[in-house]
TrEMBL record:
Pfam families: Ferritin_2. It comes from Halalkalicoccus jeotgali (strain DSM 18796 / CECT 7217 / JCM 14584 / KCTC 4019 / B3). It comes from the Archaea. Gene3D superfamilies: 1.20.1260.10. This is Ferritin-like domain-containing protein.
Length: 237
């Protein structure tokens, strides 16, 4: 249950949320395709723009094989995991609770939010590890964790929470967009099990950001290029 402050109409929270989102998306728009590898040649995205459609194997053209899809997912899991690790380490519990976005929440939520985000961090690292082992089982080479730069998103508590929600939404859309390209049917159930957990993360972060945790009846599936535009600002070449 949330304790409300009659002197706070939510205006400051909404303003912080909106400003952080605009800052994030503006940064995304400035980054070109060359900054994002995602387990395969950067040219795969550009090639898809020219080739398009489904190839003879049923693939959408965005991924060369299942290993490329798994490395794509592994990159995103590393991105989320490292984001949480740095943000939680930098802010600490007290710093996180300074977020204006959390000001209206009662003590039961406030006392748990740091620990809950720590659990989400551990989930992301577990996902990356399992995806790596699956790639090895298929005879592929799992990518190493890229170098990331999150800037002030891991230093300002409100920006941290807003960015976390955006990254989680991006992860949910990325899994939904890539799943139809999976050729090995045995990979679909574990991929869906990760996808559903990512959706729970996204819902939780949305609520912390003052938004509805389940805003639509259907989630948007994101293309590889759309995911690139959102994630590339944080990945160092």
């Amino acid at each position: 249950m949330r304790e409300t402050d009659p002197t706070n109409d939510g205006t400051n929270r909404k303003k912080t949320n909106s400003t952080s989102r605009r800052r994030f998306m503006a940064a995304s728009a400035l980054v070109g395709a060359g900054a994002f590898g995602l387990g395969g040649p950067v040219g795969a995205v550009a090639a898809d723009e020219h080739g398009g459609g489904m190839d003879d194997s049923g693939m959408s053209g965005e991924f060369e094989d299942d290993i490329a899809i798994l490395n794509y997912a592994r990159t995103l899991e590393f991105l989320e995991a490292e984001f949480y690790r740095r943000g939680l380490d930098t802010l600490g519990c007290s710093g996180l609770l300074d977020a204006s976005l959390l000001a209206d929440f009662g003590q039961p939520i406030r006392t748990r939010v740091f620990d809950d985000l720590t659990v989400i961090r551990d989930h992301e690292f577990a996902h990356a590890e399992v995806l790596g082992k699956t790639i090895e089982d298929l005879g592929g080479d799992p990518i190493e964790q890229p170098e990331f730069d999150f800037g002030t998103a891991v230093e300002d508590p409100d920006e941290f929470l807003v960015t976390a929600a955006i990254l989680e939404d991006t992860g949910v859309g990325a899994y939904a967009g890539a799943a139809p390209s999976i050729q090995n049917a045995e990979l679909v159930p574990p991929a869906l099990s990760i996808h559903s957990v990512e959706a729970r993360h996204a819902s939780f972060l949305r609520v912390l950001g003052g938004e509805v945790g389940f805003p639509a009846a259907f989630d948007e599936a994101l293309s590889r290029e759309e995911v690139l535009e959102r994630a590339a600002p944080f990945i160092v070449e």
